[in-house]
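Private note to self, pasted from the team thread so I don't lose it. Backbone tokens:
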């Protein structure tokens, strides 16, 4: 793949008086990139712009060097898994998927063969003849994934692809997304859950209120936060005594008891874990879990 698969240049899109995205610029190469942000951040707007479903009010969107909303040839290289689950009334899984493949330009025989292979791949072969209206949320999500992958696109836009999936299906989808990136596909995965995206990639774009806050590898973004206190939670046998110990440490503040755990903030993580290790050797402590509470998307947005 020569050049970026997707490029946004100072893109703004308005919905009446409300800005969906503001002055957004980034480029996407082969591999998996996470698009992270809370609900309403503008993630779906970016995916719809990239798919050519809507046009920017200002700025430029390019997919493989061309505008996706003008060129059918460009759009044929894009696969979109939308967040919404809206299907034509009365369709079966098989008829829906086959129609999508025919619309993408596959000949009839190839579309039939590809339909059966995809249904098997996403675990819907046994339900292919059932009406989609009777599918569970997870089954509908797998059907949407099949149609996004059906014509073997070079750019995949996946909007919350793990929603409604059981743990086994989630692992399968995560593995598939990773495999697509390794094959040289460009994959943009939107989510509001950091650990879901971390399972697929370490490259992320952080979006909030229509603007990009940070863009790069997750360790690089976290490095921006080193001057911020680290929030921790420790669960032990005697939380009151543990809290009293932590209050006396000069590098810890904001100590409070939360059920069977103690929470606090430290400005020196290395010193904190040294002190905690020493306490952990005491018989009364019975420390069962130590968790860094900043390892989540909400904390990153709080700091940025």
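Design output:
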């Amino acid at each position: 793949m020569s050049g970026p698969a997707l490029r946004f240049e100072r893109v703004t899109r308005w919905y009446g008086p409300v800005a969906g995205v503001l002055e957004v610029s980034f480029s996407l190469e082969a591999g998996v990139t996470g698009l992270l942000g809370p609900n309403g951040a503008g993630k779906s707007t970016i995916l719809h712009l990239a798919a050519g479903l809507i046009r920017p009010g200002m700025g430029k969107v390019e997919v493989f060097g061309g505008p996706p909303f003008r060129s059918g040839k460009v759009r044929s290289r894009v696969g979109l898994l939308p967040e919404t689950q809206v299907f034509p009334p009365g369709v079966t899984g098989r008829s829906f998927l086959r129609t999508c493949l025919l619309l993408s330009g596959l000949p009839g025989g190839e579309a039939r063969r590809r339909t059966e292979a995809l249904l098997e791949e996403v675990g819907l072969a046994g339900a292919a003849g059932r009406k989609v209206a009777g599918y569970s949320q997870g089954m509908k999500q797998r059907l949407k994934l099949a149609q996004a992958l059906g014509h073997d696109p070079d750019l995949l836009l996946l909007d919350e692809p793990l929603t409604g999936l059981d743990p086994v299906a989630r692992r399968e989808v995560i593995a598939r997304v990773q495999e697509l990136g390794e094959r040289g596909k460009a994959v943009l995965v939107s989510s509001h859950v950091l650990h879901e995206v971390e399972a697929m990639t370490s490259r992320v774009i952080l979006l909030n209120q229509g603007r990009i806050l940070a863009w790069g590898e997750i360790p690089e973004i976290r490095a921006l936060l080193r001057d911020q206190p680290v929030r921790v939670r420790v669960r032990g046998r005697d939380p009151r005594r543990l809290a009293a110990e932590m209050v006396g440490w000069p590098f810890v503040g904001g100590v409070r008891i939360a059920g069977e755990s103690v929470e606090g903030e430290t400005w020196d993580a290395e010193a904190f874990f040294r002190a905690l290790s020493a306490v952990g050797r005491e018989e009364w402590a019975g420390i069962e879990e130590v968790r860094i509470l900043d390892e989540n998307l909400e904390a990153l947005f709080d700091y940025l």
